[in-house]
């Protein structure tokens, strides 16, 4: 992966999943903004969305059945001390990493600590599939190195990180559909999967669907088609298409949350990596306003 280089227009689109596509230069400012979002989400996740993980500190250790990665790496059994140390070390490292300082050292520390946090979370009989893209994001962000919000350069390292997250987001949907077919077969689409979900977890916004006999089965087919068609997201190139894709994906998850109270927040954070965050700075510079005179010695204007 090369160092940062000026943005250059491409003469032809790169074919998805080819070496040229994987390392297509991406603005460093995009990584800088997303990196801050990804790291600042960790305290929210640790203290709010997965606050239940801390409860494992008081669970008898004989109930701990480590995931394969935990067995291979001989990770420590989650005692009370281990859980608390991992929790607070993770939060402190994430807040420090969000500043952009020491991006490799702090970034790798965050990734390793969050991976251990997930092993502690998922080694008691339940494994969630909404965290793989976010975990991959934490793994590739340190490989980019220094990236600042005002950095107008692009780099292949940033391009690889963005591509890796995008592919994992796509695979989350595609493999979800594959799992439905593997374990449920076509009965998943023709049965009462969503009906059961609405009966158990429905809200005032979704209970009315139980009175429309064809609606929920049709929605199951739509979900399967959407998930199996997810590789098409790899064809997205323009900034406008990226924004539209993010709005669509986040809208889908908001709709699911409004209907049955299920939200995949870490996955939604990973989706935000698709956005062209560098345009925030570009649009601000283009906005009309009073003229600013650069200092006599050169350099950036104040502010």
TrEMBL record:
<keyword id="KW-1133">Transmembrane helix</keyword>
<feature type="transmembrane region" description="Helical">
    <location>
        <begin position="157"/>
        <end position="179"/>
    </location>
</feature>
<feature type="transmembrane region" description="Helical">
    <location>
        <begin position="131"/>
        <end position="150"/>
    </location>
</feature>
<feature type="transmembrane region" description="Helical">
    <location>
        <begin position="105"/>
        <end position="125"/>
    </location>
</feature>
<feature type="transmembrane region" description="Helical">
    <location>
        <begin position="32"/>
        <end position="53"/>
    </location>
</feature>
<feature type="transmembrane region" description="Helical">
    <location>
        <begin position="73"/>
        <end position="98"/>
    </location>
</feature>
<feature type="transmembrane region" description="Helical">
    <location>
        <begin position="214"/>
        <end position="236"/>
    </location>
</feature>
<protein>
    <recommendedName>
        <fullName>HTTM domain-containing protein</fullName>
    </recommendedName>
</protein>
<feature type="transmembrane region" description="Helical">
    <location>
        <begin position="243"/>
        <end position="275"/>
    </location>
</feature>
<keyword id="KW-0812">Transmembrane</keyword>
<keyword id="KW-0472">Membrane</keyword>
């Amino acid at each position: 992966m090369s160092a940062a280089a000026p943005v250059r227009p491409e003469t032809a689109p790169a074919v998805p999943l080819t070496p040229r596509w994987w390392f297509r230069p991406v603005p460093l400012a995009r990584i800088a903004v997303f990196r801050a979002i990804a790291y600042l989400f960790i305290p929210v996740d640790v203290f709010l969305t997965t606050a239940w993980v801390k409860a494992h500190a008081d669970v008898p250790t004989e109930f701990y059945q480590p995931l394969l990665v935990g067995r291979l790496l001989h990770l420590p059994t989650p005692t009370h001390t281990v859980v608390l140390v991992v929790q607070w070390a993770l939060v402190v490292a994430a807040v420090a990493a969000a500043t952009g300082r020491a991006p490799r050292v702090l970034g790798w520390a965050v990734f390793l600590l969050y991976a251990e946090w997930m092993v502690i979370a998922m080694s008691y009989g339940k494994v969630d599939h909404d965290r793989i893209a976010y975990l991959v994001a934490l793994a590739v962000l340190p490989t980019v190195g220094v990236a600042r919000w005002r950095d107008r350069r692009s780099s292949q390292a940033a391009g690889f990180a963005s591509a890796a997250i995008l592919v994992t987001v796509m695979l989350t949907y595609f493999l979800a559909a594959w799992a439905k077919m593997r374990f449920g077969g076509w009965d998943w689409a023709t049965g009462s999967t969503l009906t059961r979900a609405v009966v158990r977890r429905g809200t005032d916004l979704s209970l009315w669907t139980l009175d429309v006999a064809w609606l929920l089965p049709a929605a199951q087919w739509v979900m399967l088609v959407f998930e199996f068609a997810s590789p098409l997201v790899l064809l997205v190139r323009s900034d406008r298409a990226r924004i539209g894709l993010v709005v669509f994906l986040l809208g889908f998850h908001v709709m699911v949350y409004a209907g049955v109270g299920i939200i995949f927040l870490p996955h939604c954070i990973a989706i935000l990596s698709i956005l062209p965050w560098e345009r925030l700075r570009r649009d601000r510079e283009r906005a009309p306003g009073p003229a600013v005179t650069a200092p006599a010695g050169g350099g950036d204007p104040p502010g």
